[in-house]
Amino acid sequence: MTKPIIWSIAGLDSGGGAGLSADQRAADAMGVYLCPVAAALTAQNSVGVEGVFPVPPEQLDAQLAALADDLPPAAIKTGLLGGVEQLRVVTRWVDRLRERGPVALVVDPVLRASTGASFAGDELLRAYRDELLPRATVVTPNRREAERLAGEGCPSQQALVLGVATVCITGGDDAGALAVDWLLSPQASGWLALPRREARNNHGTGCCFATALAAALARGFVPADAAVLAKMLTTSGLSNDASSGAGAGPVLPTAGFITDTRLLPALFDTPPTAWPAGRHGPPVEGVYGITDSGAHAAELFDAGLATVQLRLKRADGESGAAWHTRLAAEVQPALGAARRHGATFIVNDHWRAALTQGVDFVHLGQEDLLALDATERADLAQARARGLRLGLSSHSLWELARCVAWQPDYVACGPVWPTLTKAMPWRPQGLDNLAWWAAMSPVPVVGIGGVLAPEQLIQIAASGASAGCVVRGLKQLPVSDWLAAWCSGAGMPLALEAGWPHPSL
User: Fold this and answer.
1) What is residue 350's three-state secondary structure?
2) Across the strands, what pairs with 112?
3) Strand order in 49-54's β-sheet?
4) What's the per-residue H, E or C state across 141-153?
5) What is the pLDDT at residue 421?
6) Domain locations in the chain as residue ranges
7) Average of per-residue pLDDT across 282-288
8) How far is 138 from 135, CA to CA, in rounded Å?
9) What is the mean pLDDT of the chain?
10) How confident is the model at residue 157 (pLDDT cuts 50, 70, 90)?
11) Residue 503 half-sphere exposure, CB side, CA atoms within 13 Å?
12) Architecture of domain 5-268 in CATH?
């Protein structure tokens, strides 16, 4: 497969720690082809920056012209640009390239060295705000850079949101038990976090993060998923190994970051103070039936299923009293059968009403989770503390990261295959993504979507998932056929190579 091409227009660090050197290491770990374009030369080492020498604009323009026809980029990342004229060369080329087709632009506004040296005066700051940021797909400042871009007395988030679709303010330089980045994107918003690694070798973290994000965009991931991957890669490169110089050593990410379970971040809806603690009951395993009928759910329990979800929809215009009466009529026979068999009964969506009926396990889609206001979320958290069990859907990397924050009893990964049971924008996950979910998730994973034949359930079981959902197939074949399929698949794991997930949106 041809590697996606990205350009990095940035500074050359003579000490090899940050700038284009860091960008090359990140691109290699991300599996993309990097074209390194020097916008500035720096005289620096591991201790500090002693000089910055912007590349003449005509030389920068010549580098980009040489690349444009032979190695056109899917994404461009900018780092240290050196001056206003260099910035304007970049904006002109971004515009030219976008006349030919889509090109993502990730702006890492390198305004100051970690040692305190300033790289940008007021004129360059204005050029960033007025000319470069409005063209950006994503901007990745740290907190101090965001504050400088925002200006005196203006919240950094407010200023950046005005001109950029996706903002990720990195927080690795801040204090605290967690390294927390603030993310705002068309797909998701929140605080992306991992336990802080106290590492001596952290030179070039911002460069790595922005380059990894650009590389993920070039690989087809949407910005929120790209931010998850950038967080994983950058954290993987932090270490306390011996440094070649007297100061901080470079970040050294490797391609293996993508299958390191310690690196999957959590996406919190509110600022976090601690890593989430899991509180899980017995795992959900085997064939997971879904039906819209309480009577049918009872039949499935009687036939041997250990887990059944009741998926009811409230009708348009249905009054609250009528809805609760109908829900109770559907829940009670299924709940009674589950208790007789010591099985697991789950109600979809309607967690408050389900609690009033004695149900202790609910499933929520993430759109339903996000629709809860602060009071409802607090009530849900209290219910969970009292024993309510929870399953969550996930279709993308950022949704899996949100599941890490919520620590449900299981995560549903889907749709594994195309499904007609509900309309959704997601591409099928396939067995490769399901296997990645199962390997990376801190909680059990349930495969769902498009299972119409026992052979498909066999494949879900063989992928490493703890359970597989069957919906329409339960009315077409006896339960015994589905149970036999699961047992068959669980006994012969698929030979799926651990590797990259593919984009699902």
Assistant:
1) coil
2) 118
3) 49-54, 33-44, 5-13, 75-78, 104-107, 138-139, 166-169, 178-184, 189-195, 266-268
4) CEHHHHHHHHCCC
5) 66
6) 5-268, 286-490
7) 96
8) 9
9) 93
10) low
11) 14
12) 3-Layer(aba) Sandwich (3.40)
Q: What percent of the chain has pLDDT over 70?
A: 95
**H or E stretch at 139:** strand 138-139
Average pLDDT over residues 341-363: 95
The CATH number assigned to the domain with range 286-490 reads: 3.20.20.70
User: Which 8-state DSSP code applies to residue 115?
Assistant: T
Instruction: Look at residue 401 in the predicted model and tell me its pLDDT.
Output: 98
Show the tokens assigned to 427: 């591409």
Peptide bond into 415 cis (omega under 30): yes
Helices (H) and strands (E) in the chain, counts: 17, 18
Q: How confident is the model at residue 152 (pLDDT cuts 50, 70, 90)?
A: low
The number of residues in the chain equals 505
Give the mean pLDDT of 285-301: 98
Say what the pLDDT of residue 116 is.
54
- Contact assessment for residue 11 and residue 49, using Cβ atoms and an 8 Å cutoff: no
Q: Cβ atoms within 10 A of the Cβ of 153, count?
A: 5
User: Rounded mean pLDDT of 397-418?
Assistant: 97
Report helix, strand or coil for 327: helix
Weakest mean pLDDT among 317-326, 383-392, 417-426: 417-426
102: tokens are 């889509």
DSSP sequence for 146-179: HHHHH-TTS-HHHHHHTT-SEEEEB-TTS-SSEE
d(CA 393, CA 412): 5
Q: Is the whole-model pTM more than 0.70?
A: yes
Q: Which residues contact 121 (CB under 8 A, 6 or more apart)?
A: none
DSSP states of 213-240: HHHHHHTT--HHHHHHHHHHHHHHT-B-
